[in-house]
Description:
The complex is a heterodimer.
Chain A: H1 3-8, H2 19-52, H3 82-115, H4 120-134, H5 138-149, E1 160-162, E2 166-169, E3 172-175, E4 177-180, H6 184-212, H7 218-237, E5 242-245, E6 248-250, E7 253-255, E8 258-260, H8 262-288, H9 292-300, H10 305-335, H11 347-358, H12 361-390
Antiparallel strand pairs in A: 1-2, 2-3, 3-8, 4-5, 6-7
Helix pairs in contact in A: 3-4, 3-8, 3-11, 4-8, 5-8, 6-7, 8-10, 9-10, 10-12, 11-12
Chain B: H1 2-22, H2 35-48, H3 59-67, E1 70-74, E2 77-78, E3 82-84, E4 90-91, H4 93-106, E5 112-116, H5 122-127, E6 133-134, H6 142-147, E7 150-151, E8 156-158, E9 160-165, E10 179-184, H7 188-199, E11 204-209, H8 212-221, E12 226-230, H9 231-240, E13 247-249, E14 257-259, E15 262-263, H10 268-287, H11 294-297, H12 303-308, H13 317-320, H14 326-334, H15 337-345
Parallel strand pairs in B: 1-5, 1-6, 10-11, 10-12
Antiparallel strand pairs in B: 2-3, 3-4, 7-15, 8-14, 9-12, 9-13
Helix pairs in contact in B: 1-2, 4-10, 4-14, 10-14
Amino acid sequence: MSIAADKRSGRKIPFWRDERALNAAAQIISAVIILGMLYWMARNFSEISKQRGMSLSYGFLSEPAGFPISESSIPYDPTMSFGRAFLVGLINTLNVSVLGIILATILGFIVGLARLSSNWLVSRIALAFIELHRNIPLLVLLFIWYFAVFNRLPSVKESITLPGPIYMNLRGLYLSWPRLTETGNIFLIFVVAGIILALASWGILRRIREKSGRETYYFPASFGILVLIPLIGWFVAGGMPLWIDTPTLQGFNYRGGLRLTTEFGAMLIGLTTYTAAFIAEVIRAGIQAVQRGQIEAAKAIGLKNPQVLSLVVIPQAMRVIIPPLISQYLNLTKNSSLALAIGYQELFAVGKITINQAGRAVPVFLMVMATYLALSLLTSWVLNNYNRRIQFVER
Amino acid sequence: MRKILAITTMLVVLSIVLTACGGASTPVSGEPITVVETVVVTVEVPGELVVTEPQGYGTILARVKERGKVVCGGRTDLLGFGYLDASGKNIGFDIDLCRAVAAAVLGDPSSIEIVPLTAADRGPALQTGEVDLLSRNATWNSKRDAEWGNFTVTMFYDGQTFIVRQDSGIETLQDMDGATVCVTTGTTTEKNLATAFADAGLAFEAVTFEDTASVYSAYDEGRCDVATSDGSQLAAIRLGLQNPDDHKLLGFTISKEPLTPAVPAGDDQWLDIVKTVMWALISAEEFGITSSNVEEMKASENGDIRTLLGAGDDWGYTQLGVDADSLARAISAVGSYGEIYDRYFGAGGLAFELDRGPNKLAKDGGLLYSPPIK
């Protein structure tokens, strides 16, 4: 007999058969269990730390760290605080993750498209790349890159010299790098203005074209703005707004220029190639999810092959690609914590040293966990917003 | 009906799991008969749980006896101090100290379990009581004493120095201005390095790894101009490089590194036992007791020797809850301090030859000195 029938017959339904009551009860029971477990864990945790005399305060963050960090984008020396050291680690994580995500996306796209190529050789090379990287643990790849490739580069005195000049040795890659002079700030303002105006004109002119169907030459126009405004800035600034910082050999190492260490290089290449293999498969799946009819229709109305790809296939494939792509980005960021094995001092490596030097395992682990969580949630949030925008608009 | 059944099953399973987590110490009253009662059980269980026992007086000895093993934090990768022999057995100076403690409290030097720890894991392992004894060339300093646990008796006086290539032309600290230095993370070495260079107004660049093997592999490849660590460790490492003769140790030290076994905080009895065993090893050398003459020495005319070996007065064993002859067992298992040292670092020793330097007895001009055991 159904509930509706019970109602009709006027009998009161016992609460243990009332679906709403059962649902509510299930919710309450699960909430109690989960909260109970959380309470139990927290209680256990605080009691045990009290017993063991482990301090849970964060006061140590302002104490001097006392340990050196190999590379830092912000000024750091061992007399600075643990908090500062943590920040250095965070920036190092961001450096390798952001660059890694950009490069892995580009490489992944190329490999994914190559995998679908009708050219047998290209598609097999892509397949080999994907299988090689997907089936070897990342830690092994990192060790290979660091110890078997980068550490085999020639010593400082026998550096490989490339035009530029660029020097390459087992201490890193040294690039000649432009740096700003006193008048450089004026130039910099013009460059930033140029980029903003170019982006704005791109957006506006494109929208006009989409609305009216008239050709607005949005690409050459915004590109012109991008070049012209910094050029004006160059002359307004007067003199030389930039100077070239060239690396020179002094003492044990090259000094000056822009330096990328071998640890960073191995980390970046390892993470990029590993993640690119997964992204390539995601891209392939996304493109294959676009119905053949769409491509045939696009060809039927006379679009050229690149146009079919950029106007019909990719936009539709993105809807399938973005959600798994988010996971790959998150993986890349989290995998960067393997860097401590090859001496790149990112967040987790600095965290582990801090645990040891400050003797505060629990607070530091909580900090590290919270930071990774925040980074991951931020990445997901940004990409989920993008994902929402590119979904089908139902009219 | 099916839904109720499902929920009930889920709750019963959950309550069993939670009860199981509680262990035998948490009695659960009442059988889960109805949904409501089961829920009460699941909520009540958490509050009563205390997973680990407190580390109060006597708890570690009780734990060790019950387990029949002394768990020592050690290492398997440092020639001379903690490494593996050809048959895969843990041996080394630090391991022998652990064996001495096992022989003293359990009567069998092989009743040990070595937990290999990285430098960075030592502190947490001691803080959480994961190991009964940390015997892994750890430097004793006041901060670690305050935060990690209790340090016992310094068994190896060491100092931090540098290993460089013969052809690098480096002789002094000043020669190293701007050098790249390979170092293990989470060590006192890492901080001494920073301090020494900062005090001398010198610049340096550190390349740090958590794994000691990676540090010296990077140094060997030339990633660093110098590597730094305790002198004894570098002496061992040099022999493992591709061309040992191309490298040399510098003749000065930048720090004091008293390598000292440590025990978890909170158990004074265990602290005293380990300290006394260490003293006994030093005393044995002072008295000329060796692993081979322990039995004869028990009948010595010297009352202090008889006391040490448990054939005389009570040296405190009753209070500490160990056997009278526990120290004698430790000595006969691993030998006196001098025997242990020579086994690994003496002429023709198992590891490499290293001058005893400060690690001689005080009466011979060194730093080793044991309080009287009586």
